[in-house]
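Weekly puzzle thread! Below is a chain. First person to post its structure in token form gets bragging rights.
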Amino acid sequence: FFTATPVTDAATARTADPAAYAAFLRAMLARGVSLAPAQLEAAFVSTAHGPEEIRATVAAAREALAELGRR
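Winning reply:
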């Protein structure tokens, strides 16, 4: 969640910044990782995701977050 508030329920989840999530989503898409378009949707790992896909996704997230931190 893109919020400074700990998320413990639906009300605190709604404090998340949709613009920040949208920027993260675009940065992940640019790195070949498709995420849910709405920040309150769940993401799942499946048996189709092996160690390499998970490593690539984590690396993409690190790069995306670093890029957003420079803005």
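Puzzle host: Confirmed. Bonus trivia for everyone else. The mean pLDDT is 92.
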